[in-house]
Amino acid sequence: MSDELEQKIKDLEVQVQEGAPAWVVTFGDLMSLLLCFFVLLLSFSETDKAIYKDVAGSLAKAFGVQRKLKVINVPKGITMIARDFDQQIIETRKKEDIGKEVIKEIESRFQDMKDLLQVDISKDGMTIRLMGESTFDSGKAEIRARMIPLLEKIGSVLKKTKDNIIISGHTDNVPVKGGRFRSNLELSMARAASVAQFLIHQSSIDPRRISTMGFGEYRPIESNDTSRGREKNRRVEIILGTLPFAKQPKKSPLSIF
After folding, report:
1. Is residue 197 part of a domain?
2. How high does pLDDT run on average in the chain?
3. What is the model's pLDDT at position 199?
């Protein structure tokens, strides 16, 4: 009997298949995690309108679809980044329109000085650069009469915007001799202030939007080794950008004690 029992046990051991190796459990866990990861990615994704239209059009051409269907509700993907990006594009286009108006005025009335009048537009803002003696006589801070019409045009255009206006004055590195200003720094600040006062009083721009800065000879855009370079460094820049307003201090209640 014992021999027969041992033989049956051996037969059963042969029939029982060996289990899966231990690494299969870890592999199964990994696949489950990857599935969850891709499901999350799909749930976070957004449908891009432009890509959707391109894909739909390509499929229509590929399958020979000739019929045109009016799509009322196109799938939209709106995220905070997309909204901010669209807003930046709108603001840049506004600044481009402003710059075009100023350039048109320069080309129509200031052809002989167009090399000294520049308009630079970027995503960060717009800069109107008045260089050389186009706006001021040498060593002085009074605006030349000839430039008043252009500044009036600039003021009327800037008044339509809501951005802050930064006016910065710059000079070359030739020391100031005589006159009411003791240094190039004082001269640059006075010139910036003159343009700011003009925009406030003549163009009726809100003074809270305007700020002035004077840099003297310390921020040149060209080399001061040539007369042409010094001419470009003597400039006033009107910058249209964004600056945070200072918060008004809260009024504290009066205390008797």
Report:
1. yes
2. 77
3. 94
